[in-house]
Amino acid sequence: MSVAVEPTRTDKHRTRQRTKPGYVRMKSTRRGVDNPKRSVLLTVLTGIVLIYSLIPLVWLFINASKTQADLFTSFGLWFSGDFALFGNIGDTLAYDDGIFGRWFLNTVLYVVLGAGGATFLAVLGGYALAKFSFPGKKAVFAVVIGAVAVPGTALAVPTFLMFSEMGLTNTPWSVIIPSLISPFGLYLMWTFASEAIPTELLESARMDGAGEFRTFFQICLPLLGPGIVTVLLFTMVATWNNYFLPLIMLKDPAWYPLTLGLNAWNAQASTAGGEAIFNLVITGSLLTILPLIAAFLLLQRYWQSGLSAGAVKE
């Protein structure tokens, strides 16, 4: 025996909605994050930007494999003659008593002490500004924002005059000490720590008897990992590519970074009796960017997660 079930008011309302003109039933597979809408224009623009970014790297690699004579007698975007890459690398490392290796070590020194120190100070300052309240915090915020807007080249000459009075010019400290200050890194860690570290977590640690140093190094520091890597990459690239500050601070070629040293090699061709070594300059430039490419590839996932932190409201 079958029993008829009378439709409820909800079922009747749904039936009326389906029968209305223009009603389209939602499909089970909606376009969203998992199934985004494809744009031909966006794909073409992305491809153009990709080609524009890769052409200088391709040109650098191709021309680093050419001899000095082939650089001016062949097409720049294709190989010519013998593949002289490994020979050029050997000549670059051996030229002028191996000064390139000294410049490379100088650059590593500036990056480890300068960029590493800037990252460490940015982490400490950003954490303190994000999780502690003190008088003058808004003034500090205004100063940090203002410092981000000031280009580093505008401070180079005043820094030189100050370091000259202190007797620090033509020393590694004249490059390392200014590199320790990164207003953008401090601001980035400030905003990242505000979202990455819950205040309730700090209160729980303090209630359990953990001191501030233990709370920071054992609890908060692992949570700040993506932000730390992001700031480290920015400061490392800025220090590695720094040119103007070492140019006005350093006179002794033994303390040159790679950027200044390669420029000195490039300028040899325009000096009286100078030797043109453009093939070594190009090969040295290729060797200079390899550590940066390796760092980005190894730390890419941490860098991406750090950039997206705080972008979604939970």
Automatic annotation (TrEMBL):
<keyword id="KW-0812">Transmembrane</keyword>
<keyword id="KW-0813">Transport</keyword>
<dbReference type="InterPro" id="IPR000515">
    <property type="entry name" value="MetI-like"/>
</dbReference>
<feature type="transmembrane region" description="Helical">
    <location>
        <begin position="40"/>
        <end position="62"/>
    </location>
</feature>
<feature type="transmembrane region" description="Helical">
    <location>
        <begin position="139"/>
        <end position="163"/>
    </location>
</feature>
<keyword id="KW-1133">Transmembrane helix</keyword>
<dbReference type="Pfam" id="PF00528">
    <property type="entry name" value="BPD_transp_1"/>
</dbReference>
<protein>
    <submittedName>
        <fullName>ABC transporter permease</fullName>
    </submittedName>
</protein>
<feature type="transmembrane region" description="Helical">
    <location>
        <begin position="215"/>
        <end position="240"/>
    </location>
</feature>
<dbReference type="GO" id="GO:0005886">
    <property type="term" value="C:plasma membrane"/>
</dbReference>
<feature type="transmembrane region" description="Helical">
    <location>
        <begin position="175"/>
        <end position="194"/>
    </location>
</feature>
<keyword id="KW-1003">Cell membrane</keyword>
<comment type="similarity">
    <text>Belongs to the binding-protein-dependent transport system permease family.</text>
</comment>
<dbReference type="GO" id="GO:0055085">
    <property type="term" value="P:transmembrane transport"/>
</dbReference>
<feature type="region of interest" description="Disordered">
    <location>
        <begin position="1"/>
        <end position="20"/>
    </location>
</feature>
<dbReference type="InterPro" id="IPR035906">
    <property type="entry name" value="MetI-like_sf"/>
</dbReference>
<feature type="transmembrane region" description="Helical">
    <location>
        <begin position="103"/>
        <end position="127"/>
    </location>
</feature>
<feature type="transmembrane region" description="Helical">
    <location>
        <begin position="276"/>
        <end position="299"/>
    </location>
</feature>
<keyword id="KW-0472">Membrane</keyword>
<feature type="domain" description="ABC transmembrane type-1">
    <location>
        <begin position="104"/>
        <end position="299"/>
    </location>
</feature>
